[in-house]
Design a protein that fits this description.
CATH superfamily of the largest domain: Reverse transcriptase/Diguanylate cyclase domain
Number of domains: 2
Number of strands: 7
Number of helices: 5
CATH topology of the largest domain: Alpha-Beta Plaits
Keywords: Membrane, Nucleotidyltransferase, Transferase, Transmembrane, Transmembrane helix
Oligomer: single chain
Catalytic activity: 2 GTP = 3',3'-c-di-GMP + 2 diphosphate
Shape: globular
Enzyme class: transferase
CATH class of the largest domain: Alpha Beta
Strand order of the largest sheet: 2-3-1-6-7
Order of helices and strands: HHEHEEHEEEHE
Structural class: alpha+beta
CATH architecture of the largest domain: 2-Layer Sandwich
GO molecular function: diguanylate cyclase activity
Pfam families: GGDEF
Mean pLDDT: 88
Strand content: 15-25%
Length: 200
């Protein structure tokens, strides 16, 4: 009996140590998520959070009105993300969003703002950029999104496309809500006529 207990002790200690390690990993992960939220970052994509985006957008609207500079916004939606999630699981959907985030980073200037705006949408704010310049950026992102295939951890690959709505402030009275509503309206048109479309 004592021999069995002695043999069991190392296994019990190993299980206990594994349990403690797992718990500390969970705590560390939760702390990382809370920290990224506090500094205005989305934990999945590393992009700005919606709240941070809206704070900066309000300031940029005021600045563009004060100096009569153009200000444009883009809203991007992954085509058929629900089907991607169904086919490739949540990992596939997460990789698709990370892929779009990277395509956006590679397509804009350092002072442009990119944010995870909702579960499926990414928004961009382009200061000192008129509508035609914003359309060029949107097309660049759209092409980058479709050109590179996404690799799953198991080696399976898939392609994806996006629809993008583009808008520019129209009057000195425009608010952040007006600009984003115009970009969202353009996005809805792109999704209706899409996939893989840029509309303004």
């Amino acid at each position: 009996m004592i021999d069995k207990i002695i043999l069991f002790i190392p296994w019990a200690l190993a299980l206990l140590m594994f349990g403690l390690w797992l718990r500390s990993e969970r705590i560390r992960r939760m702390q990382k998520i809370k920290l990224t939220e506090l500094i205005g970052k989305d934990p999945l994509t590393g992009l700005s959070s919606r709240r941070h985006f809206l704070d900066i957008a309000a300031r940029e609207i005021n600045r563009s009105q004060r100096f009569s500079n153009p200000l444009s916004a883009l809203i991007i939606d992954v085509d058929d993300l629900r089907n991607l999630n169904k086919t490739y699981g949540q990992i596939g959907g997460d990789l698709a969003l990370q892929h779009i985030a990277q395509a956006c980073r590679q397509s804009v200037r350092d002072f442009d703002l990119i944010a995870r705006f909702s579960g499926e949408e990414i928004a961009l704010l382009l200061p000192d950029t008129p509508l035609d310049g914003a359309i060029v950026v949107a097309e660049r992102i759209r092409r980058k999104a479709e050109e590179k295939r996404i690799m799953m951890p198991d080696g399976l690959e898939f392609a994806m496309t996006v629809c993008i709505g583009v808008a520019q402030t129209q009057t000195e009275m425009d608010s952040t809500e007006d600009l984003l509503l115009a970009a969202d309206t353009a996005l809805q048109k792109a999704m209706t006529t899409g996939p893989n479309k840029v509309m303004y």
